[in-house]
Design a protein that fits this description.
The chain has 25 helices and 2 strands. With 649 residues, the chain is mainly α.
Length: 649
Amino acid sequence: MRPLLWLGRTSLLLALAGFVCFPAANAAEKMKTSVADLRYGVALYHYYQQDYIPALSELMVADTRDGIQGHSDNPELIAGGISLAFGMQHHAESVFTTILQDQRRPQSVRDAAWFYLGKLHYIRGDFSAAEQSFARVSESFKPALRAQLQALQFNIRIRQNNFAGITPEDVEKLRSWNPYALYNLGAAHARAGNFKSAQEFFAELADINISDLPKRQKEQWALQDKAYTALGYSYLAEKKYRAAIREFTKVRLEGAFSNQALLGYGWAAVAQEEYDVALKPWQVLRQRSLMQPAVQESLLAIPYAYEKLNAQGEAVAAYQTAEELLAREIQLIRDMRATLTQGELLTLVGSDAVAQGDANKILRGDGTAEGSPTAVITDDGQNWLKLDNTSVIKTRSTYLKELFAKTRFQTSVLDLRDLLRMQKLLQQWQPKLEAYCELLIEKQASRSRHEQQAAQNVLANKQQSLIAQRDQLSARINNIARDGNYIALANEETRALYARIERGENTIRQMKAAGQDIVDVETRLKMFKGILLWRAAQDFPVRIAEERAQLKTIDDALASIADTRKRIDEVTLTSVDIQPAIARLDELRKEVAGNLLQADAMVEQQSKMLRDQVDEQLAAHEKRLNNYLAQAHLAVARLYDAELRKQPE
């Protein structure tokens, strides 16, 4: 059953999401349809992906800088709510207190802060402070959360023994919290001995309409079974045995409370001296697992009924059977106590989680004894790292199920599992940091001046070669530009044709000197030469630009080489890129070593606390069984003694 005053982390965060999506900072402020601050947008993305740790980290980083602008109180409320859900109580308290210290905050934001601050006080067990915080919440607070707030207030009154004035009608407005409040108030009245009022609350719970939702049905059926069982025992305490039997018979036989109902049914019949009637539910109960306390009690109840029916032989046989079974169960518990050592529990909690389906197969058993302390870690709950995926420990041993179902035990398991993860992470980082440090030292050692000088020489030679190329190219470009030598930059075909023309001009000079007629040939040659020069002049601007671009490329390469040589000189002289990293790695190594020592100590402490809880639970079962066994021994001795007394001397 879900406790009245426990709100799961997922429920808390979903409620928070519904509250802070669009807070009314003031009446004139328009509802935002876009994100005004990128960091808030990133935080919201993680938040709605249910990646709450990155969301909180983003908000905290932003807070250490210049905060988040343009989103009113949303970031603070989200940060406070996530912190509270993760058990980061001090940070959550700091956030909510900061909000409440600013009187300019809108009432809706102050209501949320008072509500979550009250929950924080409640978690710490400071019920007086929680009550004062809840009282500061206005009537206009969000209805769904207000119902939860009122349920918490009812529970505070129960703890303060101030619940007499609460009626079933007062509980009706609690919405989904209604069934749990009804049961808690009924139980409180029953503990106070006010059975009439207790019966009113239990009857209201029993009359609630069952939901059509399958998951909800299962929960409500269990609550009603618990209510019927509690009603039966309240009538039994008032000696209204017929009414008690009527309520016990309403409990489902396959339900979790059927054992208590069958046991109570039998005792109600015994109270009316209907011993044969009492035997019927007890014999049904006797067929069930002997690890159930009600079944163990039936081992002594059945022979007691036989005694009342004057069936002494059947009574002795039943007591002797009880002795054998109880002795076997005691030995089973002792074996479990010897098996579930601190180291064994540490190994179990540190093992890999299995899927829910596989866990169910393991827990159903594979031919091993029912009392085997088989337990598994399964991911099927709420996790402080990812809220819909928690590692919880489960067992098929009834002796441990009660302990494993407790929030205190599962919280210890989660804490230990988180510590083991942290311990493993720190252990993995130790050799990594050592390796990183050795690499840097080796790098520093290999960076000798000889090697650096060799690198400098290579760069210097390359630099000199490029300078020569640059000077040669620059001179060529300058000469071509000064002389207007278009042919020098013409393509290969044009240059070849121009060379032929130059050879033709030489031939014409020789022919002219020989007195030959050259007028026609000279005219045609000059025409061809002009055409070639015109073509070369057309391409000249592009060609000269390409030459100058090549010159710039060489200049850029020379500048890069000069910069590289400068940086090599700096690194060689100072190791500026290695020394700070080595110093930082030394700090990290010391920090990791210290954290690992602390983690080891906390793992030892937490695993011991877990072992103490398990052993304490098993010791309580062993003590109860020893008590039953002693009663069985005495009963057998008493019956034998009574039989001997009947023998003639």
